[in-house]
Amino acid sequence: MTSAKHGERRRRSPAVTIGLTLIALFFFAGFCALGAWQVQRLGWKRDLIARVDARIHALPIPAPRAATRADEYRRVRISGHFLHDKAVLVQAVTVRGAGFWVLTPLVTDQGFTLIVNRGFVPPDRRRDYARPQGEVHVAGLLRLSEPGGGFLRSNDPDGDRWYSRDVAAIAAARGIKGPLAGYFIDADAACGPDSLPVGGLTVIKFPNNHLQYAITWFVLAAMVVGAYMFVMRQEWKDRRG
What we know:
Helix content: 25-40%
Low-confidence stretches: 7-12
């Protein structure tokens, strides 16, 4: 009886070995693929950071009528006059604390309207900030619209509560007619250190953890190889025994 059971166990061993090998190959290939993907993402992220860094330090170019994702964070300049009566306040959290972004439509000299994020104001100064009249010259960073709302909060145009800088929604809520640029400008800081709104607070930070992720996946792949070798070594010992 014992000999029969032993023979049965030995007859099952090749199938078990093949199954373990296939499982090990599956996980090894999967972890390696994830590691390679993170390496690709690392290269992409480094290239993005380099391109954005070059853009923010370049001389400003005339603001375009339209923009794509490839234009984000370009330094641009534009002239026109503000429509202060159509400004909106968007909730913001900055290095200066909680408060609001002042987003004001600018009728440009080129004949289209452009939303300008003039900067930050604290809650107690939300109605008390500079409103320059006449022609103004604006320089800053081109930013893409933020449709919908913020984290777990949707914009409420009817209630005039804004949580993201949604260009189209702001224009519709304020009744802005005519050609509209589909992006906004984060204006540079004004000359006066105490002037409001406070511009130049754009946060340019791209999390770059792809190297750590790649190392983690490759380590897991190596652990699969180590575990498989250990199991196979035990199997070899059992066969010899």
